[in-house]
């Protein structure tokens, strides 16, 4: 029966549910029987919601239907047969017409059979649990409609006792991609419909434990349990046991269930996630929990756990995977969290919804401070001045309360959860305040966070996203009169009385962010500032293929979306395939929990090294402190520092070993804190923290040897093994090698293309216009050259060029002087801009092209900063040493190709072919001691800038070497502040001196 007349009004009903939905409760580990309904289901997709509901009948011929796995998202199944994913950040992919959604509403019908086990006949009730369905679903069992629900990343349990029967049963589910609930789920991510988390049938025994909540506090070395047991009178006596503590409590009636002291315990912390197994048992059911004893508290403007201030070195974690989307994979999640630990991440904000429930078990176990966020975002109303925002509309109140109730009830037992977050970017309003009031009444043991409560009207911590370094400092500063965003002076004063955290900062899109260390420095100076959560942990690329079959990670616009937000979803410190980007190494170095300060005593380095333990509560007894000395990157001595355990918050000075200082090489001392034993997340010897001390003696660079007797020349000649054509190098030792050419352009990073952030802090930025747009306007990507002069002397050649761009009256003078200096060929380049260049420059460098010949350049070895790329405001992970890499490894495959690969402060560089040196280059410091950086790539900046995806890069026939006297910083202007002035590259005169020789 075609039922276009069907009543679909529920799709535009803000009410979160219909039918026999059960009250929210904890997601418990129990010995009561359960049956997973994961696996293949019969599936049919319709373009609208109005198809007949006859499929839900017990008897229905679904033989012609496809099979789809549960859990999965239908748009990621069937190779496009079931539609495509849509990526939007803030925009709604449907008209803003709340609470209505379009008739074009992809609707997935699911069916499967299951056998109800015989022994389940003894169960009192049978529940069907859905851990995640996007976005609205209805449920039938044996043709009986049970109910429906929304709240995609929330758990819903239905009572199906009356509908099931022993033996064969049929369950049918209808999922609509859009409903009123879609207005509440406008998070910055892919829209991915389907039954994407587990479906489980639960037998509830008579006299079982319906719910239990163990608030496990820690005070003065002792643990205290405040229990709450939800069970019928028949369930009693209920027995709680903590075998490890020898605790047993028998409660004969609900009145007995009262708080009690468990005696001395080890506390739980993110650093030492000590868990105690607890069982809560009735005659019919045993529930097993893991208690972590910890007390969360706000005292003044401090956020404390177990009485000690917490500093969040956190990340925003979305559930995303290139093939699975938001479908959870426990092994992958565990490895992902272990990776976080290895990179010194100590906190997770579950942006912007509760993760799969098992994730919190892993967080308890591995140790993270978790800000658990509710599934709520209405960001798209921003576009209409927040008119009609559900957050302040009484019709949506019930939906808001339902969401926060399901969030808190499901995960309330986890010690890792230390803050509840109401959601993200949902404006402000009475419904959010009501959520907060509900949480406050239900859980007095954890504060409430919501960034959108700018004025601090109903939440407990002050939170911001992407505030600049300057602004963040003002938030932390007592007596600062600087106004706070969206606050009156009085509201600002109120916010300054609270702990502050950055729920998002350091937007890690593409190459960046810069300035991580500047934010971290503030945390030290201003205890009100409790750190924050980098946006974000990983890229959300979806695995797909280019027309030519090349695999790649798709982003917005790659799936034919009507509206989309491009690559704004590729903003993680991890690439889509789990590969950490250099930003994650930078993060690790910046937040390392041990700080080394050399010297400090009157007698300089003889003061040894001060080792400060910045941890929350763990001492350093799990660490060993190793040292080594290198001469020009070659190890010459090593050992271990003797140091007693340093308590958290403490510091101790260790004497340094005698350092043999080389006369003709740089001498560097490196110290490392490494794990003394393996942990659940890293092996013994894993480096937790590191620092370097430069002990080099003075080694002045050779002076420029002046030449005389210059005369005009055609410039076609040889100097040593170098061949020149028209004054330009054409070959070195028989290898084709062309250059130098002035290069001022870099393929714009996502931050270079960004327009956000307050510009007054960066003298270089223009409000609303990206730096990249200014560079293109000024023609930095299309420089042309006019050769003014070619001259030679006895063993030297020099050229003078005027470099400029079409329609520009500004220029750069480039003088290149080649000279034989003994065995070596020196190139000195003097780069002098004309006056009047208006913007920052991406770089000041010269490029060389090495066409593929008999010995194509395919790698580099260098002595300088490495091993990864570094930029002026992202240098902390880099160390001075000797490194090598293949040419492919020198570039990071960012989802959208952009500037990558710059290695700073190079001293020696060898370009290699199949491991042997083709050319060797020594970089001399300029008169101020500054050293150049280098980039070796298969593509030019111009080629990279033209590609939207890696597969669009043209076939390459040459290696390109760029030696930069300077590079511009990174900043995080894709969503945040521009490059800090100190790291912004203003046009200026620069000198490069390179000594080259054939390999
Ligand atoms: C902020 C969002 O909260 C987050 O989900 C993400 O979209 C991030 O931006 C950018 O990637 S909101 C923004 C308007 C600051």
TrEMBL record:
EC number per UniProt: 3.2.1.23
SMART domains per UniProt: Bgal_small_N
Gene3D superfamilies: 2.70.98.10, Galactose-binding domain-like, Glycosidases, Immunoglobulins
Domain spans labelled Beta galactosidase small chain/: 718-997
InterPro entries registered for this protein in UniProt: B-gal_small/dom_5, Bact_Beta-galactosidase, Beta-gal/glucu_dom_sf, Gal_mutarotase_sf_dom, Galactose-bd-like_sf, GH, GH-type_carb-bd, Glyco_hydro_2
Top-level EC class: hydrolase
Catalytic activity: Hydrolysis of terminal non-reducing beta-D-galactose residues in beta-D-galactosides
UniProt KW keywords: Glycosidase, Hydrolase
Pfam families registered for this protein in UniProt: Bgal_small_N (PF02929), Glyco_hydro_2_C (PF02836), Glyco_hydro_2_N (PF02837), LacZ_4 (PF16353)
GO molecular function terms noted in the UniProt entry: hydrolase activity
Family in the record: Belongs to the glycosyl hydrolase 2 family.
Name of this protein: Beta-galactosidase
Organism name: Actinacidiphila polyblastidii
């Amino acid at each position: 029966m075609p039922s276009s007349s069907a009543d679909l009004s529920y799709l535009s009903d803000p009410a979160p549910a219909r039918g026999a939905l059960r009250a929210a409760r904890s997601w418990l580990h129990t010995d009561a029987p359960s049956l997973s309904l994961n696996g293949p289901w019969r599936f049919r997709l319709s373009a609208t919601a109005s198809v007949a509901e006859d499929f839900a009948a017990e008897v229905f011929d679904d033989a012609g239907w496809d099979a789809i796995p549960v859990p999965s998202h239908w748009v990621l199944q069937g190779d496009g047969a079931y539609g495509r994913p849509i990526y939007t950040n803030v925009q709604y992919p449907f008209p803003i017409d709340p609470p209505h959604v379009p008739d074009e509403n992809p609707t997935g019908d699911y069916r499967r059979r299951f056998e109800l086990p015989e022994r389940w006949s003894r169960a009192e009730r049978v529940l069907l649990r859905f851990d995640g369905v996007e976005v609205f679903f209805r449920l039938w069992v044996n043709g009986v409609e049970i109910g429906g629900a929304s709240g995609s990343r929330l758990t819903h349990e239905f009572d199906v006792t009356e509908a099931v029967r022993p033996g064969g049963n049929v369950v049918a589910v209808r999922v609509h991609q859009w409903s009123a609930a879609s207005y509440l789920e406008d998070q910055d991510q892919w829209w991915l419909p389907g039954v994407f988390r587990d479906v489980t049938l639960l037998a509830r025994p008579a006299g079982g434990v319906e719910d239990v909540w163990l608030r496990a506090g820690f005070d003065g070395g002792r643990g205290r349990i405040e229990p709450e047991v939800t069970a019928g009178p028949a369930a009693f006596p209920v027995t709680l046991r903590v075998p490890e503590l020898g605790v047993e409590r028998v409660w004969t009636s609900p009145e007995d269930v009262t708080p009690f002291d468990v005696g001395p315990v080890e506390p739980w912390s993110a650093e030492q996630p000590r868990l105690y197994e607890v069982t809560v048992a009735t005659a019919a059911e045993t529930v097993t929990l893991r208690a972590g004893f910890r007390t969360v508290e706000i005292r003044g403007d401090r956020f404390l756990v177990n009485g000690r201030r917490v500093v969040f070195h956190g990340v925003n974690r979305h559930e995303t995977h290139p093939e699975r989307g938001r479908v959870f994979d426990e092994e992958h999640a565990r490895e992902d969290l272990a990776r976080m630990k290895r990179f010194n991440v100590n906190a997770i904000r579950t942006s912007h919804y509760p993760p799969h429930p098992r994730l919190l078990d892993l967080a308890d176990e591995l140790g993270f401070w978790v800000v658990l966020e509710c599934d709520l975002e209405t960001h798209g109303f921003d576009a209409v001045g927040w008119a009609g925002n559900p957050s302040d509309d009484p019709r949506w109140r019930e939906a808001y309360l339902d969401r926060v109730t399901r969030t808190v009830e499901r995960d309330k037992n986890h010690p890792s959860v230390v803050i509840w977050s109401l959601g993200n970017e949902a404006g402000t309003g009475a419904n959010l305040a009501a959520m907060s009031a509900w949480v406050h009444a239900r859980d007095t043991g954890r504060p409430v966070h919501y960034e959108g409560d700018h004025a601090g009207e109903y939440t407990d911590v002050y939170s911001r996203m992407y505030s600049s370094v300057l602004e963040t400092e003002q938030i932390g500063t007592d007596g600062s009169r600087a106004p706070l965003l969206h606050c009156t002076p009085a509201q600002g004063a109120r916010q300054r009385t609270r702990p502050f955290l950055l729920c998002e900062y350091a937007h890690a899109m593409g190459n960046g962010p810069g300035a991580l260390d500047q934010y971290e420095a503030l945390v030290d100076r201003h205890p009100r500032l409790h750190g924050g959560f980098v946006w974000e942990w990983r890229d959300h690329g979806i695995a797909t293929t280019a027309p030519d079959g090349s695999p790649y990670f798709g982003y917005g616009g790659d799936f034919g979306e009507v509206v989309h937000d491009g690559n704004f979803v590729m903003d993680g410190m991890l690439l889509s395939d789990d590969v950490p980007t250099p930003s994650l190494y930078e993060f690790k170095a910046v937040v390392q929990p041990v700080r080394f300060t050399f010297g400090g005593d009157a007698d300089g380095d003889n003061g040894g090294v001060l080792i400060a333990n910045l941890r929350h509560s763990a001492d350093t007894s799990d660490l060993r402190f190793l040292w080594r000395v290198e001469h020009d990157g070659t190890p010459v001595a090593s050992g271990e520092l003797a140091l007693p355990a340093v308590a958290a918050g403490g510091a101790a000075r260790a004497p340094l070993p005698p350092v043999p200082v080389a006369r003709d090489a740089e001498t560097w001392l490196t110290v490392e804190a490494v794990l003394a034993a393996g942990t659940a997340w890293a092996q013994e010897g894993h480096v937790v923290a590191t620092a370097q001390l430069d002990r080099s003696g003075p080694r002045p660079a050779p002076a420029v040897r002046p030449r005389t007797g210059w005369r005009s020349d055609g410039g076609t000649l040889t100097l040593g093994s170098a061949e020149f054509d028209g004054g330009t190098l054409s070959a070195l030792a028989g290898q084709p090698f062309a250059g130098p050419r002035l290069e001022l352009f870099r393929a714009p990073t996502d931050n270079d293309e960004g327009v956000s952030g307050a510009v007054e802090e960066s003298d270089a930025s223009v409000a609303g216009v990206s730096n990249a747009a200014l560079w293109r306007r000024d023609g930095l990507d299309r420089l042309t050259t006019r050769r003014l002069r070619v001259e030679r002397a006895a063993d030297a050649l020099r050229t003078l060029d005027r470099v400029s761009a079409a329609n520009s009256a500004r220029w750069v003078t480039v003088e290149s002087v080649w000279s034989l200096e003994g065995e070596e060929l020196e190139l000195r380049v003097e780069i002098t801009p004309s006056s009047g260049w208006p913007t920052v420059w991406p770089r000041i460098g010269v490029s060389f092209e090495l066409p593929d010949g008999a010995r194509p350049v395919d790698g580099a070895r260098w002595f300088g900063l490495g091993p990864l790329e570094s930029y002026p405001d992202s240098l902390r992970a880099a160390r001075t040493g000797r490194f090598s890499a293949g040419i492919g490894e020198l570039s990071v495959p960012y989802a959208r190709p952009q500037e990558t690969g710059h290695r700073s402060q190079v001293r020696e560089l060898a370009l290699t072919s199949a491991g042997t040196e083709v050319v060797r280059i020594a970089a001399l410091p300029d008169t101020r001691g500054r050293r150049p950086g280098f980039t070796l790539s298969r593509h030019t900046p111009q080629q990279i800038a033209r590609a939207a995806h890696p597969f669009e890069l043209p076939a390459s026939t040459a290696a390109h070497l760029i030696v930069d006297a300077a590079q511009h910083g990174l900043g995080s202007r894709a969503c945040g502040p521009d490059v800090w002035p100190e790291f912004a590259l203003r046009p200026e005169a620069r000198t490069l001196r390179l000594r080259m020789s054939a390999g």
